[in-house]
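Protocol step 4 of 6: structure prediction from sequence.
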Amino acid sequence: SLRTADACIADAQQGEAGRGEAEAGGAEEGPQWRWLRNRRFNAATNAFIQVAGHSNLFERLCESVIIKQSSTPERAAYEGISATPLGPFVPRCLCACQRGEVQLLYIEDLTARYRRPCVMDVKVGTRTFLEADAASTRRRVDLALKMLAVDPAALSEEEAAAGVTKMEYMRWREVTSSSATLGWRIEGIRRARGGAAASHYPAPKLLREPEQLEQAVGWFCEGRPAVRRAFAARLAELRAALEASRWFATHELVSSSLLLLYDGDPHGAAPPGLWMIDFAKAAPLDGALVLTHRAPWQPGNCEDGYLTGVDSLLHLLSRPDPLAGECNPSGRSRPSRRARGASQSGAERA
């Protein structure tokens, strides 16, 4: 289990340090680890924020560092990306160490720079399953239960009792969302503002039509054109970096996400940001194979549709926000009546 911050840092120093802060066998404590050891935070006011994924994989180390229980492929992805021009588009992996079969990644908490983080997690790619999953015939009840948790009408009682294969589950996730058609889907949205409690957009994983996605993105940005423009500019920069990256061309990225963040506090100083996250299923290609990340997937070609999703999301973000409204006295953009009505009706449906 993950223990205190001191114990975690000691583990990292005794293991492999990701950026040369310590070496195997123990080394003199570097300034980075002294800084971490001296940090203290209030767990009530600095809670770790997550809108999607497996919550049991993360532990908060301090105000700006989280520990993720991960795998060798994700560790290799962070190490590979950080040495390329794609480095600025991923969270910093400060250190990595191995405990048994688990890799512990000490990762920058991107939400720490914002006073009231507003977060959207976008799963990217037209294919979100590994090619090895396509060949598996094992039926799993746990996956059937995941389907029913999202849509109680997804399976009959007999189908739920028998379970579904990993391929059936992943394909269902793709066709019931926008992944199969647009190459991206919204996994979760959290919006925080003023003194009010954070609010979450209802059932984002079932959004499939462009109009539904437009409404959700507008709700997330609160009709603030500057936030939307900042996301579009950052995504355009990322796309250019991806298209020029040899690392990206020689790796498949399956079930990876983009994390979009901005500050719900009008006095916050940090600008909106967008980063690549989740590399547990990233894998280098065999031989001389090179991916376009846009070609349709066929068994054996390893295409994942990542750039298809980036293209589509950038197209949406680059359009004028139809939900943008007038500014209220605080200087924040206020959604139009149409946006407020759509959000209320969505909450009622949830």
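Step 5 (inspection) to follow. The first strand starts at residue 58 and ends at 62.
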